[in-house]
Amino acid sequence: MTEKETDLCKDIGREMLRAREQISNDDYAVNPEQMRKFNEVSEYAEALAKDNNGTIEYRNTIPRDTIGAIAIRFVGELTFGEDSTSMKNFTKALDLCDGFNIEGTGLEDGSFIVTFYVSDVHVKKTKCKIIKKRL
Q1: For 82-96, what is each residue's pLDDT tens digit?
Q2: Which residues pair with 56 in a beta bridge?
């Protein structure tokens, strides 16, 4: 990439951040069904972290982001099966999700992040205009 292209990308990024900062959380409302799902997934994620020496690295419920996310960091390995972490509970949590991600951290400790996503936890409020009928 040329220096000119790099500068253009930086300018676009700054404008995107500026536009994002202008979005008000007050313009969004809780979507009860999706929030219920996210709360169930969060409970599961917290239990999974506790039972497997993981740590909650990130939890997002910022209204303007609309997507609820919870990320857990584990070191080493995470095994699911009969004598370890329940596959049934894991698949139940996955069924509530709209997305799921596993990625390595690149750290020497062999850690990795498991992230659960639930979409539309918050939705944009509709703005209606009341029109008065003239008599």
Answers
A1: 777 888 999 999 999
A2: 72
String of DSSP letters for 61-124: --GGG--EEEEEEESS---BSTTSB-HHHHHHHHHH-SEEEEEE---TT--EEEEEEETTSEEE
Please give the structure tokens belonging to residue 115: 């992230």
Query: Please, which residues bridge with residue 104 across strands?
Result: 112
- Predicted TM-score (pTM) of the model is 0.78
Nearest to 61 by CA among 83, 23, 30, 90: 30
Residues 112 and 73: beta-carbon distance below 8 Å: yes
CB 67 within 8 A of CB 121: yes
